[in-house]
Amino acid sequence: MIHFLRLIRPINLLIIAVTMYSVGGYLDLVYSSFNDGIMLVQSFNFFLLVISTVMIAAAGNIINDYFDVRADRINRPERTIIMKHIKRRWAIVFHWVLNFVAFGIAIHLGLVLDTFWYVFIHLLSINLLWFYSMHLKRTLVIGNVVIAMLTALVPVLVGIYYQDYFKTVVLEEAHPFHLNNYRFFPLYIGLGLGLFAFVLNWTREIIKDMEDVKGDLVLKARTIPIVYGLQKSRTIAIIFVLITMTLTIPIIWFWRTGYIDGIALVPLLLSAISSVITLMILFRPINQKNLKQANLGIKFTMIFGMILPLFWVIQLLN
Q1: Which parts pass through the membrane (predicted)?
Q2: Angle at 272 between CA 153 and CA 277, to 5 degrees
Q3: For residue 66, what are the CA distances in angstroms to 69, 83, 86, 147?
Q4: CA dihedral 186, 192, 195, 200 (to 10 degrees)
C-alpha cells in the first residue's frame, strides 16, 4: 500500500484538491448574495469533480513512471517503484481503473449538469497524459507545454463548473447589472490562476529536465537542456520565474484600490519570497543539489499562489 501511495504522489494530489476547494469557496462567497447562501463547494457534484480530477492526475503519475523506468534507474534509483515494488502489469491495471472511474464520473457530471465540457476535458487529459508519458515527454518543448497546460486546467475546471451554474441558475433573470459584471467572473478567476500555474509548471519541468539529463540521454529525449544546454535552460527558467512575478501586479492593484485587504496578500508575499529564493538558487552553479532546491522553490511558489483564493475566503468571512 505504501508503495502505491508513493507512486501516485499523494502530496501533489492533495494540492490539486485544496486548490479546487479554495477557488470554489471563494466563488461561493462572491456569489452568496445571489444564491441564497447555497455553497456549491459543499455539493456532491463538486466533490465528484475534485475526485475525478485527482484520479486522472494519479493515473498520469502511474503511467509516467511506467514509461520512465529505464531513466529513473539512472536519475533517481532510490525512488524507482515500478518493477522494484509494483509489477508493471499491476501499474497498468491501476492506471486504467483510475481513468475508467474518473471518466465515468465525467459522464455523470455532463448528464446531470447538461454540459459536454467535463467529458471533453477529462477525455483530453487522459489521452494527453498517456501520449505525454509515451512520446511527448521526450520531444522538444511540446512535452513541457502539454503537462503545464494540464496543470493549468485544474483551476479552469472549477471556473467552468461555477460559470455554468451561475449563468443558467442564479443570474438568469434577476440582478441584470450584476449579471453583466459577474457573468464571466468564475472563468476569469480560473484562467488567471491557470496562467500562473502554466508558467510556473513549465519552469519546473525545465528544471526537472535539467536534473534528468543523464537518464533522458539514454531514452534519446530531445528536452530543452539536451538540445540547448544547461546554461541556456537556466536562463529560460530565470525568465519564466520573472514572468510569474509580474503576474502578481494585478493583485497588488486590487489591494491598492481596496478590493482586497492585507490578509489576502499573505500567500502573495510568500510566493514572492519563494520566487526570489528560487532565482538566487538558479544563479548558483548548476549541480544536482541546487537544481533540487530550485525545483522545491518553484513548487512552494505554485502552492502559495494556488491557495491565494483561500485567503480571499478568509477576507470575505471577516
Answers
A1: 12-34, 46-69, 90-109, 115-133, 140-162, 182-200, 236-256, 262-284, 296-317
A2: 110
A3: 6, 9, 10, 16
A4: -120
